[in-house]
Write a structure and sequence with these properties.
The chain is an alpha/beta fold. The protein is built from ten helices and eight strands. Helix 6 runs parallel beside helix 7 and helix 7 crosses helix 8. The longest helix is centred in the last third of the chain and has 19 residues.
Amino acid sequence: MAKRIDAHHHCWRMARGDYGWLDAASPALDPLRRDFEPAQFEPLRAQFGVHQTVLVQAAPTTGETEHLLHLAARSTWIAGVVGWIDLANATSTATLEHWATNPVFKGVRPMLQDLPDPRWIATAPQPRVIDSLERLGLRLDALVRPQHLPALTQFAQRHPQLPIVLDHGAKPPMRAGEPQSYWRTHVAALAREPQVCCKVSGLLTEITDSDATVDQQLDAVRPVWDHLLDCFGASRLIWGSDWPVLSLAADYGRWIAVCEALFADLPEADQERVWWRNAADFYHLPLELAA
C-alpha cells in the first residue's frame, strides 16, 4: 500500500457554535451538521495507509484553532494544524507568537471565499501580521474561488518569502458545460510564483451529480488535474481529502481510487511526491511519524 499524508481534512464539534457556513439554509449540507472527530477518521486512516494528516480550520475563530491544537495533542497522527487568525488585525501577531511555540501549528487559513470583497487578500492584511507569518516560518492556506485568484497572485508577488498553498485547486467550475478559461488563465498566473503550491483536494464536491460513477468522476476531474499538473508540476502538488466535506460527493475510498487513476501515469517518484512527500516538505512535518 502506498504511503500517504492527507494534507487537508477537518474535524468539528457542532456545540462549539462557530461554524457559520454550516448554518446555511441549504439542505445539501444536512449530512455535515453533526460532530466529526478524530476517532471517526481513524478507521479510514488505517484502512488507506494515511500515516499523517494536516487538520485544517473550518471556523473563522481563534477558539476553534485552540480546539484543533487540543485534538492534535491527543492524536499522534495529526502532524500539523492550520488555524485561523484575523490577518487584518495587527494585534494578531501576539497570538501567532504563542501558537508558533507549538510545533504542530503550521500556518493559517483566512476563509477568503466567504468574504464579500474578492480583493481582500491584496488590500486588507496588516503588514506586521504577514511579516510575523514569514518570520515564524508559518504557511498560508488560500481558500478561494476563481474570482479571488488575481488578488491572490498580487499578494503572492508582494510576499515571495511566504509559502502559500492553493486549497482545492481554487474550486474550478466543473459542472457540465461550464467554461474553465478564466480559472485556467489565473491558476497558471498564480503558479508562476515559485513559493505557491496547490492541493489536489475538494474537487469531487464541485461536481453536482452525487450519483456519478467513479469513471464519470474521473472524467470530470482529469482535465482539472491535467491543467494543475501542467502549471505546478508534480513537485508542487499536494494530495488531500477534504474529509468530511468529501462525503457529500463520495466516500474516502472513491477519492483514493480517482486519484490513483489520475496519478498512474506519473513516474513512481512523482507519485510519491504528490501522495506524501510534498506535504511533508511544505508543512515541515516530522518524517519519523510517517514511517
